[in-house]
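Schema walk-through. Below, the input block comes first and the output block second. Nothing else is stored per chain. Lengths vary across the set, and this one has 115 residues.
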Amino acid sequence: MAVTHVTATRNAISDAVLVAVGNSGQLTGRSSGDAEIFTCTLPTTSGTVGATDLTFGTFSDDTNATGGTVAHLRIENSGGTEIFRFVPGDITISSTVIAASDTVQCSSLVYQPPA
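--- output ---
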């Protein structure tokens, strides 16, 4: 079954994701065993919803990563509760291998609910 969402529904999904992330959410890189490799935090206002998309604010760098191989990434609320996840192939990432004490940056991230 093919499902499509109208623009108003996509906006509502993006709004709901933003509410779930709340203030000071975070992007974490995780190993295949779900161990945290790095955490980049979001500002107090985590993002803005535009025409169907949620554009996250500027992430703070993790200047002392734990290190490991990134199997998936998660957007979490400030308490560490997972809101959604994705794999490195879904975004542009310089390397999935992060050395201990590396600095990890995220220059931008846009969430698009399914059309």
